[in-house]
Structure formats: C-alpha cells, structure tokens
Design brief:
This protein is an alpha/beta fold. The protein has seven helices and five strands; from the N terminus they run βαβαβααβααβα. Helix 3 (59-70) crosses helix 6.
Length: 163
C-alpha cells in the first residue's frame, strides 16, 4: 500500500492515476466536514485488500490541513500513531511530494481555492508536512520527492518500484 501526500498541486493525483494504469487500485480520502469519527473511517479501509492500494491523500492530510486551515486536527497524535502502525502492518510506504511555492502557484493558477491556500499558507503547510513526515519516518518508509527537481517519468519509475 502506498499513500501519496503533499500540498495541492505537487502532482499527487497525477502520480496516483499513473499507478492505477500499472494495476494499482485508487482510493481518495476527501475532506468530510460532517464526519467526526475519522479513525473508524480510516480503519475501515483496512478491511479491504490493500496489497495493491494507492491512496490519494489520507489521514496524514488531516494532521496538516486541520491545524493550518481549521485551527486543529480531528485526529490527535496518539490516534495518528495507531493509524500509522495499523497501515504499516499492511506494508505501507509514503511518498511525500513537494515543490517550490512559485511552481505550485503556476500549476494551480486556474483553481482559485488551491491557489489561495498555496499563496496564503504555503510555508505553514510545508512546516506541518515536514514535521509529520519526520514523525512518521520513525514507523514507516517515507520517500520525499521534489516534483520540480525530478521529472514526471522519473517520479513514476520510482513509485512503480515500490509496488
């Protein structure tokens, strides 16, 4: 199982869609304002066959976007760790994609919401992502890739080897 994470515009969906063409199954966790029991939501996914699963976002996003955009996460660090360890039992690897702010603004120039989030919160989002990835790295493999420095084909090749 692979989780692909990073700020909007870094290339998560592009990479996930590529991995689907290579035989993986995609699952996207969007933000659900009404769902307060996120732990159950994320644990329920483990009831399925996760051997060829690739996630476009996950509970990791809640640990980043929650504090930055909503003033707090619906998942505390203890619950996050439990989720991480449960996913680790299923062979989890995390691909954390990054890119410079100016590059992301170019990529998301036609999406007002993403553009505004990048413009206003880029440094804070990166700081939270870096911190949660540093923490996660104690438990699972985390691969950091700058999609501005590594071309799409190289990123795809790297991810394909993780399957």
């Amino acid at each position: 199982m692979i989780i692909v994470e990073g700020i909007d515009g870094v290339g998560k969906t592009t990479l996930v869609d590529y991995l689907v063409t290579q035989g993986m199954k995609k699952h996207h966790f969007g933000y659900d304002e009404k769902n307060l029991d996120l732990i159950t939501k994320y644990m329920r996914l483990l009831d399925k066959d996760t051997s060829s699963l690739v996630l476009d976002r996950s509970f990791i996003s809640e640990m980043v976007y929650g504090p930055v955009l909503r003033g707090g996460s619906k998942i505390d660090l203890e619950a996050y760790t439990k989720l991480l360890l449960a996913y680790k039992e299923r062979g989890l690897s995390i691909i954390y994609l990054t890119a410079p702010k100016d590059e992301l603004l170019k990529r998301r120039q036609y999406d007002d919401s993403d553009y505004a989030n990048i413009e206003n919160y880029y440094n804070e989002l990166n700081s939270y992502y870096d911190a949660i990835m540093d923490y996660s790295q104690q438990f699972v493999d985390v691969y950091r890739i700058n999609t501005h420095e590594m071309n799409e084909t190289a990123v795809q090749g790297f991810a394909r080897k993780l399957r």
